[in-house]
Amino acid sequence: MTKVITYGTFDLFHEGHYRLLQRAKELGDYLIVGVTTEAYDKARGKLNIVDSLMTRIENVKKTGFADEILIEEAPGQKFNDIKRLHIDIFTVGSDWRGQFDYLSDYCKVVYLERTKNISSTMLREKNSRIQRIGIIGTGRIAERFIPEAKLVSGVSTQGVYNPHLESAKRFADKWEIDAYADVESFFSAVDIVYVASPHETHYGYIKQAMEHGKHVICEKPMALKKKQAEELFQDAKEHGLILFEGIKTAYCPGFNKLLGIACSGTIGSIRNVEACFTKLENAESRELTDQKYGGSFTELGSYVLLPILKVLGEDFEDIQYDTIRGENGLDVFTKISFRYPNAIATATCGLGVKSEGRLLIAGTKGYIVAEAPWWKTTYFEVHYENPLEVEKYTERFLGDGLRYEISDFLSMINGNSNSEFKLTRSESVIMADMMEQFLEMENRNI
Ligand code: C2G
Question: For the chain, which has fewer Cβ within 10 Å, the N-terminal or C-terminal residue?
């Protein structure tokens, strides 16, 4: 008798799960299905699980493919189950390809092809809660988005659009999703859109996506002009759609914990914020060669402006920009100084100058400091006059951190506005305005 085992969360049970179990059963005579506990999913960083363990087990049971169901509670359990239950074949979807090869010392490992399109099926009707994401753009950030989206229950990456079919295909083949070079068929195949194309194309794609009735999550900077940002938010309102700027720091749990402490009076009234983010880029990179839209401020400005606007608000009295340019004239190091009625702040970003990269928030009773990479906050300290009095805080930041913003975007789509405060529309508009002022000052004709 050939014994097969597979594992999964099986949340919002859909066609992909059904087909996986069906083919797993066909691999042998006896199928064991491991269903993950909430605690284990939490530990491995999955977000947004909707169904209870009982419901998920019930849904697996209903397929009739499982001869036995067990509960997966901890890392390392797969190895033990395989030994203990004398398993011949371990199988899982191809979205995990390569990641369970270590089990091949103990049994055969089979990756079954992931179901690309979970919409073309009857199960889709029952699961309208699953949002099919379409990605616009095939660059580095789009690559990082897919594994993160996989860890948010309730979304499924469906396809990618690039006007150059070859690029779309290359990307789609790698991630086992559909490729589109025709924008109309792309929009009709997806429910929500992630815009990860070059900065200057964001406005046009967001506009188009919303005209097609799609909610949009867009990479930062969402817009490079104040009017465009305002218009896009107005369009979203009129169409009843969510438009969401993806500045991942704004949604990361550690950063929100830090803001909570900064704004709770623990360090008194805040008088100074300094935020610095530098990243040395290759001179040939798009960031350092794109004469119109490249440079340190368009690239990293959103991160360093964020804590200042969050902590000190939008009513600054004055802003000064100061910048150092590289040989080709693009800004490689930029400092923005803010003057508020009772506070000052500086945002510093660099692509050609390396600095310490910290976030410092100083108040009348103490200060908070988070070292680089504070934009993926995992640790920060609160200091007071007495240097021995230091409070230390830690928080998890898993993977590339995009899962947090995807999860908040999804809950906003589902009508929960609890995370809207993390990055408000008017904060996004101010950032677009500052990008515009900066590019104007640099005499770039955008
Ligand atoms: N799956 C699929 N096609 C989809 C979605 C999922 O074939 N469109 C497969 C997955 O590859 C997995 C199974 O369905 O084999 C269950 O998927 P999930 O519930 O998302 O569980 P997952 O997080 O993949 O857990 O220990 C758990 C395992 O590592 C897999």
Answer: N
